[in-house]
Amino acid sequence: MRMRPTVNWTPTEDLPPGSTDPEPVADALSAGGVLVLSGAGLSTESGIPDYRGEGGSLSRHTPMTYQEFTANVQARRRYWARSHLGWRTFGRARPNAGHRAVAAFARHGLLSGVITQNVDGLHQAAGSEDVVELHGSLDRVVCLSCGAFSPRRELARRLEEANVGFEPVAAGINPDGDADLTDEQVGDFRVVPCTVCGGILKPDVVFFGEAVPPARVEHCRTLVREASSLLVLGSSLTVMSGLRFVRQAAQAGKPVLIVNLDPTRGDRHAVTRVALPLGTTLTAVAGRLGIPGPAQA
Q1: Per-residue three-class SS string for 23-74
Q2: For residue 49, which of 62, 86, 105, 178 sits 20 to 30 Å off, Cα-Cα?
Q3: How far apart are CA 203 and CA 154, in angstroms?
Q4: Given 3-state DSSP classes, what are the helix, strand and coil percentages for the chain, each rounded to the nearest 5?
Q5: How far apart are CA 214 and CA 223, in angstroms?
Q6: Model confidence over 189-217: pLDDT tens digits?
Q7: Rounded to whole angstroms, what are the CA distances from 145 to 83, 197, 215?
Q8: H helix or E strand, kind and range, residue 184
Q9: Three-state secondary-structure class, residue 241
Q10: What letters, b where the CB count within 10 A reaches 16 and e where it falls short, cover 133-161?
Q11: Element (H, E) at 261
């Protein structure tokens, strides 16, 4: 089943106000069994913009949909030209204090798991293990015909060879790794096929309008059932792929805590939304719990 893309959400006036007190987050973590659900806001301090925050990419950029990618040759050329350029920025991104704090919480046995809506791999780079990548990862490529997987670095090499001299200057980079390029900058960029069967290659990520694999969803639902509480970090929860787990936790009577500067679609289900920057907030929480060093590389 395909999900109808939900790109924007407008907060209503009856949402509870945000808090500046991170103590409830520290209390939940000290009790253990916390399941983390992270979004693009966690990676902004690593230089990767989010979709919907202040200056978010949706103000200038409409993400590629699965339907457009699979049906339109020119759309695929435009996507791969932009993504090829954006991949260089993603490759240089490093975990920030927020990622390192999450990894530190896990090392100290406070977490039951991590689900991320991000496709940047920064949780794992910070040391988190067994991360569920809800929307997949940009470092893998899959063939839509034969299902073969291959490393993104190998595709990057092939695209470099097929497009010698392709060095446009992008207006910006988006959370999905897509650089902002004009059609003139894309030009006649050459897309390469699958080396196994000659089929269409796609990054192993869930595009807008594409469903998260059912087995992955059920695994996440199991993690929610087994958790003591749910901690949302840097997600507006606009899309149902993440919001459904917030609703599940709330319906089961499990506390939902959110750290996000802006209001979220899940605020009415949460016991608190801490409206503070993620890196400093999670570092401060770690300090209260006696966990040293998450702010350091």
Answers
A1: HHHHHHHHHCCEEEEECHHHHHHHCCCCCCCCCCHHHCCCCCEHHHHHHCHH
A2: 105
A3: 12
A4: 40, 15, 45
A5: 14
A6: 999 999 999 999 999 999 988 999 999 99
A7: 21, 8, 21
A8: helix 183-186
A9: helix
A10: bbbbbbbbbbbeeeeeebebeebbeebee
A11: none
Handedness of CA 293, 33, 273, 40 (dihedral sign): positive
Rounded to the nearest 5°, which phi and psi values hold at 278? Answer: -70, -50
- Given the structure tokens 């069967």, which residue do they identify? 197
> Which tokens in the block code for residue 5?
């893309």
141-167: per-residue pLDDT in tens? 999 999 999 999 999 999 999 999 888
What is the per-residue DSSP string for 117-154?
---S-HHHHTT--SEEETTEEEEEEEETTT--EEEHHH
Element (H or E) spanning 162, and its range? helix 152-162
Please say whether the beta carbons of 252 and 275 come within 8 A.
no
Q: Is 233 helix (H, G, I), strand (E, B) or coil?
A: strand
Half-sphere exposure of 228 (CA within 13 A, CB side): 12
The answer to whether the Cα torsion of 44, 49, 54, 55 is positive or negative is positive
Which residues does the annotation mark as catalytic?
135
Token digits for 22? 């991170």
What's the mean per-residue pLDDT of the chain? 89
Please provide the size of the chain in residues: 297
CB 35 within 8 A of CB 230: yes
136 Cβ contact partners less than 8 Å away, ≥ 6 residues apart: 119, 203, 204, 205, 206
3 state DSSP class of 90: helix
How far apart, in whole angstroms, are the C-alpha atoms of residue 267 and residue 246?
A: 9
Counts for the chain of helices (H) and strands (E), in that order: 10, 9
Q: Can you read off the two tokens belonging to residue 150?
A: 């291959």
Alpha-carbon distance of 8 to 10, in angstroms, equals: 7
Q: What is the pTM of this model?
A: 0.88
